[in-house]
Structure prediction request, 139 residues.
Amino acid sequence: MSQALNDLEKGINSSLTTTVIKSEIIFNQLYIDINVQDVISTILFLKTSEKCKFKQLIDITAVDYPNREKRFKIVYLLLSHEKNLRIIIRANINEKETVPTITKIFPSANWMEREIFDMYGILFKDHPDLRRILTDYGF
Prediction:
């Protein structure tokens, strides 16, 4: 296991002003579980902090667990080119819960969030153009 990854995990846990529900290192990647209302502040910290420098949004996706109380999990994958590290941020949400958009932090999130809306019905609060991207409105 990379010492840089261990140091990053400790640094994030001690510096992040929001609550980290859980953090763990799996297959040389850091996973952080947060509350959905902390998405913007967490992503912004990870992008702008000198300790992190996660300047690239690789992907956003969702996972559906139909039998769980919090049915969906939103997953963000970020990359730090400078540190050559990836981080996965996860947040569990209820079926009708909205997720804050991160399009002002990462403009490329626009289409990723639209895809999640289209495929899972998850709404993104303050998204600039939340409409279907893959299926028609009768889907």
